[in-house]
Amino acid sequence: MSKKNNLKEGSYRDYMDRIAQESIPAYEPDLGLEELRLLEDVIKSNWISEGKYVRRFEDQLRGICQRDYALAFNNCTAALITGMKSLGIGRGDDVIVQSLVHSADPNSISATGANPIFAEVDEKTLCLSTETIQKAMTEKTKAILYVSLYGNAADLDNITKYCRENKIILINDCAPALFGLYHDAPIASFGDFSTLSFFSDKTITTGEGGMLLTNNVELINECNIYKHDGRKERGVDTIERKGFNYRLTELQAAVGVAQLKRKDIFISKKKNNLKMFNSLLDGLDEVAFFRFNPRGDIVPHRNIIFVPDAHDLISYLVDNGVGARTLFMPMHSQPCYGIDNNFPITEKIYSSGVCLPSAPSLTQNNIEYICELIKKYFK
Predict the structure, then answer these.
(1) Is the separation of the CB atoms in 224 and 179 below 8 Å?
(2) Disulfide engineering: 253 pairs with which of 54, 165, 215, 222, CB 3.0-4.6 Å?
(3) CA-based angle 348:129:298, to the nearest 5?
(4) Dihedral sign, CA of 149, 151, 152, 154?
(5) Phi and psi based region of residue 230 (left: phi greater than 0; alpha: psi -120 to 50; beta: remaining)
(6) Please, which residues have CB within 8 angstroms of residue 30's CB and are 6 or more apart in sequence?
(7) Under a CB-based contact definition with an 8 Å cutoff, are residues 119 and 96 in contact?
């Protein structure tokens, strides 16, 4: 007698079944023959744990992000947790982070034993500003977790100065902002350490994966111990710290190295797709565009518009085979945090923001179809 599965309605499996019906997905990776070639090389080597491709991937990203050191992780959350623990952030400390953010950010703070303190975002940039940080400061604030939301960045120079003057650690989660520049410097070059994500919806992907970048040799050495189960090096029995296995595999790194070879193509396509959406929807009174920071060379992670009722438009687009999504549900309203603080700007952005499909593989026909649907919806 077969057992019924215990998955409830509304489960992750239901979600995957729904998105399988979308003819234009919210995002899909662009993988090709070079990825297959390097994967074959790894398999033939018979060494699929950390090796030469992980080191190559780290070295390439260290150069791109203008950092002295880079350390690969199995995901960005692990990199955040490790970086914070290595800097002594823990129980009794407060870390400021915006409420409009992916759950990985406050969850990683909580994983260290510290308290996430939610802050408003700047309405124009969707990021923290010096002003919103100052309003959220507490006597126990030890760090600021800055997030380059949807690839954007703003006020980073002033926030860096503020953190230095007040002896506060600046963590820069630029998971969706690889290849973006702020005042001609890589976004990932800011902060005591920065982190990247290579999840399947990022500009380059390894399926899952992350990276920690810093100029601090003591920090990178400490992080390296934590990510190798607390050992100074593999093959050594002595445990220096209560660490974890946060390693990236050779298979994943090989895909990342192959993806980097086509980064300029991905960047160009994402920028051109954003321009096409803006051009085709220009003049539609009900639609406002999110304007990425003009003071930087931003690579958009998402194509974002604002409308009177985001959830209704999203339902309409999904019913017509388009993978539209909401912005991140504010963390202050999530059941696991349940904070009653008032965040009117965050709530306004969430209720009106729509993420349109943003894969480099989007065609002109795809974008024209999506825009025609939106125009039809508002007729």
Answers:
(1) no
(2) 54
(3) 85
(4) positive
(5) left
(6) 262, 266, 359, 360, 361
(7) yes
Domains and CATH numbers, the chain: 33-260 (3.40.640.10), 263-377 (3.90.1150.10)
Angle, CA of 305, 311 and 317, to the nearest 5°: 75
Q: What is the pLDDT of residues 287-314, one digit of tens each?
A: 999 999 887 799 999 999 999 999 999 9
Looking at residue 11, its amino acid is S
Let me know: does 252 contact 78? Beta carbons within 8 Å: no
Pairing between strand 303-306 and 288-289? antiparallel
3-state secondary structure the chain: CCCCCCCCCCCHHHHHHHHCCCCECCCCCCCCHHHHHHHHHHHHHCCCCCCHHHHHHHHHHHHHCCCCEEEEECCHHHHHHHHHHHCCCCCCCEEEEECCCCCHHHHHHHHCCCEEEEECCCCCCCCCCHHHHHHHCCCCEEEEEEECHHHCCCCHHHHHHHHHHCCCEEEEECCCCCCCEECCEEHHHCCCEEEEECECCCCCCCECCEEEEECCHHHHHHHHHHHECCCCCCCCCCCCCCCCECCCCHHHHHHHHHHHCCHHHHHHHHHHHHHHHHHHHCCCCCCEECCCCCCCCCCCCCEEEECCCHHHHHHHHHHCCECCEECCCCHHHCCCCCCCCCCHHHHHHHHHEEEECCCCCCCHHHHHHHHHHHHHHCC
